[in-house]
Amino acid sequence: MNKSGAFGRSGSSGSSAVIEPSNIKLLLIGDANVGKTAMILSYCHELMTRA
After folding, report:
1. Of 36, 45, 47, 50, whose CB count within 10 A is highest?
2. Residue 6: inside a domain, yes or no?
3. Hey, how many other C-beta atoms are within 10 angstroms of the C-beta on 10?
């Protein structure tokens, strides 16, 4: 692991630190018609509305 941490974030020493976005791959496993896609879309929409 690099010194910036698991998610590419630097330490909390500076208040003006820039956090660069990172790519994450997610494998969601489950039965058909249980809401896997709806859960991911809801989560992504929540991230976009916070920004």
Report:
1. 36
2. no
3. 13
